[in-house]
Amino acid sequence: MVAELKEMGVELMVSIWPTVEQGSVNYTEMLEKGYLIRTERGLRAAMDFQAMTTHIDVTNPDARKFLWDTVDKNYFSKGIKTFWLDEAEPEYTVYSLDNYRYHRGPNLAIGNVYPREYARAFYEGQTAGGQENVLNLLRCAWAGSQKYGALVWSGDIASSWGSFRNQLQAGLSMGMCGIPWWTTDIGGFHGGDPRDEAFRELFVRWFQWATFCSVMRLHGDREPRQPQQGTTGGATCCSGAPNEVWSYGDEVYEICVRYINIREKLREYTRGLMKEAHEKGSPVMRPLFYEFPRDAKSWEVETQYMFGSKYLVCPVLQAGKRKMKVYFPPIEGGKKWSAFDGKSSFDGGKCAEVECPLGEMPVFVREQ
């Protein structure tokens, strides 16, 4: 199957959680060898989602090797080269953080390194196996995670305008922390009915914004919930409703197609930004002050940003908004900002009201 998909130009990604069920064939061995996170008191179980589980202790180098050897045997050796590393915080049913102890010390002292070491286990295994350009999707990160090919997404967030606004801040903050590979679930993860006109508007605005993010990625658990299929494995957790771009009606579909094509046209530009991030640590998504440090106003604007050094991006973050005020930072030499469609231009150092109909998010090009 993996080979057949590769022939079609599709790269299969496998989702792996760091949880180990007590009924697993590996549990006893991992327990005896100290490969699992310990508890200071009570049951040695950190989660009760689908089963009683605990987490592999990836701060233990021997545990990382055991993890990778298992993944290598079952997936990597069969041609799977990309992994979705969920639960990377790790997540606990009860957040009594003082109760968990890792190989490297108590959770309260070193717990934040867990997602970095989880990414490291896969990165080192993949590179040792000859893979180049390693990139895996993770739900969490810490300082240094970028060294281990971590593409971080912002987690299982709500499908709401408030959550949408938070994602903008999250993406900019991650970039300033040196982690350029970042993405979000377009439309949010929890909730949202594709048949609901109000949610369709949120989805469109999120989709437009994602076109000018480090990674453009559609994912979400939509309503209404679908009937359960099967009784084992992931089937015990029923799935959400359709979430493809054609699931939102003709108008939304046409808007999505337009922005997919825009993203495709930006492919070489985006690759250049990634190269710059790799060589210089420059964020892909940049607060205005990063590009215009001498402009006091650019330190105050929080709802616009630069996609690289060229594009000024102005997400539409409120329902029903069809006009918005945009601030245009001053460009040296008195150069102007041009609308993305090239039909209008604006002077730097000034604000202006611009149109933002549902089918269009304001984006402006910096004159070079």
Explain what this protein looks like in three dimensions.
The N and C termini lie far apart (48 Å). Helix 3 packs across helix 5 and helix 7 packs parallel to helix 8 (250-265). The model has no long low-confidence stretch (mean pLDDT 95). The protein has a single domain (2-284), classed as Alpha-Beta Barrel (TIM Barrel), CATH 3.20.20.80. Helices cover 30% and strands 17% of the residues. The chain is globular, with a radius of gyration of 22 Å. The protein is α+β, with helices and mostly antiparallel strands and 368 residues long.
Structural class by helix and strand composition: alpha+beta
Mean pLDDT: 95
Strand percent estimate: 15-25%
Strand order, biggest sheet? 11-12-13-18-15-16
Using the coordinates above, name the CATH class.
Alpha Beta
Query: Considering the protein shown, what is the CATH homologous superfamily?
Result: Glycosidases
How helix-rich are the residues, as a percent range? 25-40%
SS summary, helix count: 10
Largest sheet: 6 strands, antiparallel
Number of domains: 1
| Rg result | 22 Å
- Distance N to C terminus: 48 Å
